[in-house]
Amino acid sequence: MFESAEIGHKIDKAVYKSEEPALREALLDAQFEMKERGEFPVVILINGVDGAGKGETVNLLNEWMDPRLISTHAFGVPSDEESERPRMWRYWRALPPKGHIGILFGSWYTEPIVRRVSGEIKASQLDQQIEDIVHFEKMLAHEGVIVLKFWFHLSKNKQEKRLKQLEKDPKTRWRVSDQDWENFKHYDRFREISEHVLLETSTGEAPWIVVEGEDSYYRSLTVGKQILTDIRARLDRDKPSVTPPDVAPLLPPIDNLQILDTLKLDQELSKGDYEEQLEALQGRLNLLTRHPDFCKHSVIAVFEGNDAAGKGGSIRRITAAVDARHYSIIPVAAPTEEERAQPYLWRFWRHVPRKGRITIFDRSWYGRVLVERVEGFCSEADWMRAYSEINDFEEQLSENGVIMVKFWLAISSEEQLKRFKEREQVGFKRFKITDEDWRNRDKWGQYVHAVSDMVDRTSTAVSPWTLVEANNKYFARIKIMKTLCDAIEARLGKDREKEKDKKK
């Protein structure tokens, strides 16, 4: 893949000087039109070998275009805060909003390549990270993001020559570190791993552009023209293309029976038994969150369910047992303007907790396959592909030590009507009932169907759904507390088993 970049492409200075002004003007025009329309963002990845002109190119792009509409991020060794979250968390945070350009200098490719070269991860682990990256970039493309991936290449001899030139000049000596020379010692291994990664991740949605980095004029015009071509092509397109979902179609149940129809919603539990069990479970939860091994994990609890099913009351019983400094509750409503300018999952990634913390989502990312599906707030292609994107998201969370618990609180239509009327009669509960709640009742059957599809597609081994029979609030709260405690206890137990196996 790198052979064509080693031919030694060069551009005469006079040619560069004649082409640069027109290119800069065209880039600025495209940039401002992109901002004015606010329809899509651009993500530019800058990767490659040391000394191939990556930094100079990033500086030049900021000089050629309006830097107020460009966010540039350089990624080094993860900070403590970043290390306590999934690997992709810091890259999600760096994504630009629609109408803007984000330049990622040292992107999500750098860490897995470097770690594989140094022997920190196995080939199988690298391939798993490659698969995660491909899924991520495909999701970005489906969300309308233009992903431009540049790999700056130099042959081994040219890299050595370039590093020596930079080191010799007092003005550029600072650009060469001991780490650069250490990396140079592993050039052949770095090239081998990099070529494997590029071949596996150069896709139709996000192909790699390999740029020979020796001649500054050549690389500058090559990168600038490619950026202009891709932005201009998107701006000039009459209509955005609709990518069909790459998931299996939904099929109706053979016996026309939905999973929610199988639940026995009226479960018995007296107030006395409830209070006794609740006190024991809250004590158990408190001890689990103070266990020394809990600091290796975090908890994400997702609460979904019918309107008036008792999500808020169940959440309060959990938080009453936990140190207030160690949890946060995220109430999810319609996305803000800031959130609408980002890929769908962005607003949820930003709330992923650090280790030792608990985050409770009152409604969640499942809105895409529930309310947005039923109410027509997104296209069928969007909510159909959301199943696999959500599964990828939750798998990454689990691999990072997140303990996922997901609850669907189910009540009957009759019980919901009863609770709606009670809320209207109680002054401090009136805020809980809205016109939208009444409208949703008219689509009860559609929501039952959407929930059944959701559970079928997203109840996985690492992140199963717990269906809660919630006509009896006491029963529901106890089932939720017990499920949460069991999940934490099981994960901590697995940690202890792993430690025992290591000592054998």
The name of the CATH topology of the largest domain is: Rossmann fold
Task: Give the CATH architecture of the largest domain.
Answer: 3-Layer(aba) Sandwich
Q: Given the C-alpha coordinates, what overall shape results?
A: globular
DSSP summary, beta strand count: 10
Assembly level? single chain
The figure for the number of domains is: 2
What does this structure look like?
Helix content is 51%, strand content 12%. It has 504 residues and is an alpha/beta fold. It folds into two domains: 3-236, P-loop containing nucleotide triphosphate hydrolases (Rossmann fold), CATH 3.40.50; 259-503, Rossmann fold (3-Layer(aba) Sandwich), CATH 3.40.50.300. The longest helix is centred in the C-terminal third of the chain and has 31 residues, at 473-503. It is globular and about 85 Å long. It starts with 12 loop residues before the first helix and ends with a helix.
Give a summary of the structure in a few sentences.
The protein is α/β, with parallel strands linked by helices. It has helices at residues 13-37, 54-64, 80-83, 89-93, 110-117, 123-142, 156-168, 178-185, 187-201, 216-236, 271-289, 311-319, 337-340, 346-349, 371-375, 380-399, 413-425, 435-441, 444-458, 473-503, and strands at 42-48, 70-74, 101-105, 146-153, 208-212, 298-305, 327-331, 358-362, 402-410, 465-469.
Summarize the SSE layout with pairings.
Blueprint: H1 13-37, E1 42-48, H2 54-64, E2 70-74, H3 80-83, H4 89-93, E3 101-105, H5 110-117, H6 123-142, E4 146-153, H7 156-168, H8 178-185, H9 187-201, E5 208-212, H10 216-236, H11 271-289, E6 298-305, H12 311-319, E7 327-331, H13 337-340, H14 346-349, E8 358-362, H15 371-375, H16 380-399, E9 402-410, H17 413-425, H18 435-441, H19 444-458, E10 465-469, H20 473-503
Parallel strand pairs: 1-3, 1-4, 2-3, 4-5, 6-8, 6-9, 7-8, 9-10
Helix pairs in contact: 1-10, 5-9, 11-20, 12-20
